[in-house]
Amino acid sequence: xxTHGATLVLPAQAGVMDEAATIRAAxxxxxxxxxxxxxxxxxxxxxxxxxxxxxxxxxxxxYQEAFxxxxxxxQNFRFDCSFHTWLYRIVTNLCLDHLRxxxxxxxxxxxxxxxxxxxxxxxxxxxxxxxxxxxxxxxxHEVRAKIGSALQTMxxxxxxxxxxxxxxxxxxxxIGEMLGTTEEAAKNCLFRATQKMRSAxxxxx
Length: 205
Known about the structure:
Radius of gyration: 21 Å
Structural class: mainly alpha
Number of strands: 2
Distance between the termini: 58 Å
């Protein structure tokens, strides 16, 4: 029982308070505090970038640029949202820029050059395990190829919302905050993206 009027701090609250203290220390120029922030979020940032861009090279570029921007702009963080949301907003904006550039260059070609010539990318994907059912493997490759094609038909923002919702499992409200828009706008964007995906998958749905 608290008999001295002190505030009881629960473990979850303590974690939030510890992070806030770390952020404030980093804002004052404490390099060790900044490195703790990077260590806390580096894997989730890299995973998000990989899921959104489907390219390890682009994902590492975004990963590095994201933390450079955090370092440059941390003084501007005012705790009006969670640090997680603020960081993800930086990452998603960088990913959007990459996707827009790729859109111009015909993003993510579904073909790959091999020693025997140009073949469909899905045809050279490795089997998930030895002895896989050939028919099942073919079906899986066809579905992945259709999904890749469907992602290409989406605008960068539609793809971003679709990936954040279905691959990251984020709520539409959080997605809207990260993209600087409303929950309703994110919902409408997801609807358009889902319609495109269903149309592309056709008989597979």
